[in-house]
Amino acid sequence: MTANMLAAVLHDFNDLRVEEVPRPVPGEFGQVLVQIKSCGFCATDYKAIRGIRRNVNFPFIPGHEPSGIVAAIGPGVTNFKEGDEVIVQPSGFCGHCKYCRSGRHQYCTTAFTTGGDGPVDVRPGAFAEYMVTLDSCLYHKPKNLSFNAACLTEPLSGAWKGVIQYSEMMLAEDVVVIGVGSIGLLCMMVAKAAGAARLIAIDTSEYAGRQALALGATHVVNPVKEDAVKRVYEIIPDGPDVIVEAAGPIEAVKLMVALRRRGTRWNLFGITTPETFELEGGLTHFLEGRMDASFGTNPLAMTQSIRLMESGLVNTERIISHCFPLEKIAEAVEVMGQPDRNKIIINPA
């Protein structure tokens, strides 16, 4: 007889139900069953639940930022055993295509994701008591990290990849982060750990601004209350070295474009919707800046993020504002839509 488990199943937009479903079995080569202890609630999960993003096939179990305990292993698994505490990378990669072989695993031609967004192959996620994934997606959780802290490895890895690997932030550079919700705060904390000189947080929320100051911002700018471009150039007369857009709305992208000076590296991180912004060609040419973006993660970014947390350089627990058991995920969805919150964690077990 097949055992059951509780899972939050999305049957249609705005129709998320906590119900019993069959517990998955790690029957294929390399598969591992993980008991989920903590899972971060990402904005992309919220967009799927609310129908803001439409690339969802129903029924669907969301949740792609998990940590947990190995409950069972399938054939061929040798690096993990039952009882191991693990961090789960949501994206799985083939390891053989030209992208994987060049270290750009996030472009893998046959990638899958558990509970996330991006690849065509989307598998059941971690808003559930258990989840099956591959052993190649697992990392041993350091003993000094809580499950709540560890489950934020994936978003932290995206922040590290965007700020350090792609935008190549260097010691003593001036950095602007537009949008300091949970992912913006992680970008800001990475920049702080990497030795940012002046670190400016821009957000329309007073709550977010206070959080940014508490976590290391040297200045906060509210574009509703002041001219953001003017204020940034009062703080940094020579203009920012690095700008990270971690907000999402197109207005944030347009602000980032307006903030550029010669040589600025700017990273499109937060916007995931198909909206349009303009660049003046001649000015962009003479500014000689560089645009990057950061989507998804890769094994290097995951590994570096674990080192950041294990060493104490970044404490991801500081951005957690709410925790909910799986049975109360409907309340978590409501809080996700409120302005005065940071990272929300679902604790299935």
What is the CATH superfamily label of the largest domain? Medium-chain alcohol dehydrogenases, catalytic domain
Number of helices: 11
For the biggest sheet, the summary is:
7 strands, mixed
Assembly state of the chains shown: single chain
Q: What order do the SSEs take from the amino end to the carboxyl end, as H and E?
A: EEEHEEEHEEEEHHEHEHEHEHEHEHEHE
Distance between the termini: 23 Å
Kindly describe this structure:
- The protein is built from eleven helices and 18 strands.
- It has two domains: 4-151 and 315-347, Medium-chain alcohol dehydrogenases, catalytic domain (Quinone Oxidoreductase, Chain A, domain 1), CATH 3.90.180.10; 156-293, NAD(P)-binding Rossmann-like Domain (Rossmann fold, 3-Layer(aba) Sandwich), CATH 3.40.50.
- Strands 3, 4, 5, 9, 10, 17 and 18 form a seven-stranded mixed sheet that branches.
- It has helices at 43-50, 98-101, 147-150, 153-166, 182-193, 206-214, 228-235, 250-259, 281-287, 299-310, 329-336; strands at residues 4-12, 15-22, 31-41, 66-73, 85-88, 91-92, 112-114, 121-123, 130-134, 138-140, 175-178, 199-202, 219-221, 242-245, 265-268, 290-293, 320-325, 343-347.
- It is of the alpha/beta class and 349 residues long.
- It is globular.
